[in-house]
Write a structure and sequence with these properties.
The complex is a heterodimer of chains A (379) and B (84). Chain A is an alpha+beta fold and 379 residues long. Chain A folds into two domains: 164 residues, RNA polymerase II/Efflux pump adaptor protein, barrel-sandwich hybrid domain (OB fold (Dihydrolipoamide Acetyltransferase, E2P), Beta Barrel); 199 residues, 2-Layer Sandwich (Chloramphenicol Acetyltransferase). Chain A is built from nine helices and 20 strands. In chain A, a hairpin with a 4-residue loop joins strand 3 and strand 4. Chain A is globular, with a radius of gyration of 22 Å. Chain B starts with a helix and ends with a helix. In chain B, 54% of the residues lie in helices and 0% in strands. Chain B is built from three helices and no strands. Chain B has 84 residues and is mainly α. Chain B has a single domain, classed as Non-ribosomal Peptide Synthetase Peptidyl Carrier Protein, Chain A (Orthogonal Bundle). Classes of the chains: A alpha+beta (379), B mainly alpha (84).
Chain lengths: 379, 84
């Protein structure tokens, strides 16, 4: 995502805003998002009106911070900015793009911007602390060219077309830039399915768990054991994330998919995960995801569900460095203690970035997932 | 509640989890999963809505019996007769 259209304001100038409030709705090619505020204060001035399309990082409004409220920007007024649906690098850009003149920028990037006639105010920095680098300028120049090209606007672009184009851009970048390797393990789900049947028999129907939440929790916990897979690849190096925010691939009615974050999946109980997953799926399909959910995933999980194929070998969503895939739960003959028996199994796969990890560590991750699923009562 | 009324409720609740599907063309004796694009979350939400509307407790062990429109209606009719 390089730009978004402001759909509506939920707050007016003069309104008090608290951390976590939804202040505006934004529409992008990939998804409709709700813009969250990450500070306490008063909405002072609206800078972008409904219907306006602006580049990612553009300040949308200024916020007068409450006394004592600390934000990265030293100025008394901060801004809320157009969120990036494609995960930006850490840290999350809470206060939006730095004002022109204060944006940290490398000399080489500044020179390149002058050569390419790129307005630095439209460039989102992806370096440390939002520093603008040559690659950011190149990306902005490319985006300008794309906007200037006559073809895309000549043909009507419906939502479905824009969705496919957004997926195409992310996946082409993934296939072009990330040296993927794939691993697979067949996991015995006997213990997990037996435990789940017993657990669900005790629960009211509205509180029952899907086997998918066991897979999510096991993946999130396994990431703690192999933390380099819970990371981003930015500026030729790996940046580890402290929190585990699993991106959940959710198919949308009419086609396409989004992969918003289920925050802190490693710390949630299975019951909470189920509640939050249900909410996330519902809002993804209703088009009301929050900006942080679009930008926060630290590793994505794709699960094909009951009707899917036996295994999925996925493409990593950049700048993430790994993607876990789970195929359909099905019965297979397995050799246990020299006897061939029928067991419920799921094929777990890992797509990993070879710049960050190797087969040995990837295997360790799948082994951890397998191990965790043998004691589902501990998840 | 007769079978036609149950069928009407089931189709209405089904259309809530699969709003893009055309309920008029559902074949009653063919697996719903083969006719409508629903996943396990949709299926669970559908059963939860049945529970909420008809007050029929559906055990998870019974899920495999609930695959077509016909067998869902028959299952619910049986439950409603016993319970009601």
């Amino acid at each position: 995502m390089t730009a978004g259209t402001l759909v509506a304001w939920r707050k007016e100038p003069g309104d008090a805003v608290r951390r976590g409030d939804i202040i505006a709705e934004v529409e992008s090619d990939k998804a409709d998002v709700e813009v969250e505020i990450f500070m306490n204060g008063v909405l002072e001035k609206i800078l972008v009106e409904p219907g306006e399309k602006v580049p990612v990082g553009t300040p949308l409004a200024t916020i007068r911070l409450d006394p004592g409220e600390v934000e990265p920007a030293p100025a008394p007024a901060a801004s809320a900015a157009m969120p990036a649906a494609v995960p930006p690098p850490m840290p999350r850009a809470h206060a939006g793009a730095p004002a022109e003149g204060r944006a940290p920028i490398s000399p080489a990037a500044r020179q390149l911007a002058a050569e390419l006639h790129v307005d630095l105010a439209t460039v989102t920095g992806t370096g440390p602390d939002g520093r603008i680098q040559r690659r950011d300028v190149l990306a902005a120049a490319e985006a300008q060219r794309a906007v200037a090209a006559p073809t895309p606007e000549a043909a009507p672009r419906d939502k479905q077309t824009r969705m496919r184009q957004a997926i195409a851009a992310a996946m082409m970048r993934s296939a072009r830039e990330i040296p993927h390797f794939h691993l697979a393990s067949t996991i015995d789900m006997g213990a997990a399915t037996a435990w789940l049947a017993e657990e669900n028999a005790r629960r009211k129907i509205a509180d029952r768990l899907l086997s998918g939440v066991l897979l999510i929790k096991a993946t999130a916990l396994a990431l703690r054991e192999v933390p380099e897979l819970n990371a981003s690849w930015i500026d030729e190096r790996v940046m580890l994330h402290e929190s585990v925010h699993t991106g959940i691939a959710i198919s949308l009615p009419g086609g396409g998919l989004v992969a918003p974050a289920l925050h802190d999946a490693d710390r949630q109980s299975l019951g909470d995960l189920m509640t939050n997953l249900r909410d996330l799926v519902m809002r993804a399909r209703a088009g009301s995801l929050r900006s942080s959910e679009m930008s926060d995933p630290t590793m994505t999980i794709t699960s094909l569900g009951e009707e899917g194929a036996e295994a999925v070998y996925g493409l990593i969503y950049p700048p993430q460095v790994a993607l876990a895939g789970f195929g359909r739960l099905h019965a297979r003959p397995m050799s246990i203690g020299g006897q061939v028996v029928s067991r419920p199994v799921v094929v777990a796969t890992l797509a990993a970035d070879h710049r960050v990890a190797d087969g040995h560590r990837g295997s360790r991750f799948l082994a951890a997932v397998e191990h965790l699923l043998q004691t589902p009562e501990k998840l | 509640m007769n079978n036609d009324e149950i069928r009407e409720v089931v189709l209405r609740l089904l259309s809530q989890v699969a709003p893009e599907a055309d309920m008029a063309v559902i074949k009653p004796d063919v697996r719903l999963r083969d006719q409508i694009d629903i996943d396990s979350m949709d299926a669970l939400n559908f059963l939860i809505s049945i529970d909420a509307e008809l007050h029929v407790e559906i055990a998870e062990a019974d899920y495999p019996k609930l695959t077509t429109l016909d067998n869902i209606v028959a299952y619910l009719a049986g439950k409603l007769t016993v319970d009601g």
